[in-house]
Amino acid sequence: MSSSETTPSDSVDSVPTPRGPVDSSRVPRYAGPATFARLPRIDETGGRADVAVVGVPFDTGVSYRPGARFGGNAVREASRLLRPYNPAQDAAPFALAQVADAGDIAVNPFDINEAVETVEEAAGSLLDTGARLMTLGGDHTIALPLLRAMARKHGPVALLHFDAHLDTWDTYFGAAYTHGTPFRRAVEEGLLDTSALSHVGTRGPLYGKRDLDDDAKMGFGIVTSADVMRRGVDEVTDQLRQRIGSRPLYVSVDIDVLDPAHAPGTGTPEAGGLTSRELLEILRGLSGCNLVSADLVEVAPAYDHAEITSVAASHTAYELTTLMTRQIAAARG
Ligand SMILES: N=C(N)NCCCC(=O)O
Ligand SMILES: [Zn+2]
Ligand SMILES: [Zn+2]
Fold it and tell me: Does residue 256 line the site of ligand 1, with CB under 6 A?
């Protein structure tokens, strides 16, 4: 397929021209194995990527429906339809910097502690090459080792967390590492800049009012899904941007932030969520933020229909990737 990939012409001095996606006008987009957006595998770019898309097929941390271990590959399949120019951000993301698919991290499904260590190590190795990460989960447990790797590189990071759930609960069945607890652990470990923590899209029943009190004590601000509906995307995005400022920013998107009408394929669905249009617009509004890496988690394709969820997820990852490549290109001048 290498003879049919798009070859962007606007290379920057001393930076190799990025190798782009397979050209879908010459090779049918449904042909061949799936990589994210039909981009090259990282072994096809000499192990080099400015943004590495990496899968984490792991769902041992879930409290309800399993299946997010298949999420990354479902997103890759759905991403075959993405195109090289992103009009909403006026950018050709894969021409601005090298985005490559780094494959999957092979994590132990029978041992959460070991899995968490494996993710941290693999993420750290990719970050050490200079890449930013666009991680495709997997359940939300993986945000903890990803944030450990981020903090090691950047120090405590600002967090923008899109999710129906707080994910700052303490333990489930006595277990500290679950998909409902990563951000409490991250605060406890000092991985986050507690002056810039926001949940967006929060909704649904809680265990008690104390969940909110604990969350606020950790430093989180909450923009509920009803806030997005009442105040609108622009006002909410302005507020989030002010809170983030120029800090290194990590974005974690749990696909259940979307209403089940927009993302049925997930393990812990909650009614009354964001539309995919709202999510994509808020993300686009982050342009200029110092986005150091992002994850997209909790896609569970067994509950999906007509790829509704994985298509929304692929577009979410596309907007996040575009933000990162724009920033990389701007820094190169
Ligand atoms: N989907 C994520 N990440 N967390 C949901 C935890 C919901 C619960 O079982 O209380
Ligand atoms: Zn959630
Ligand atoms: Zn979550």
Answer: yes
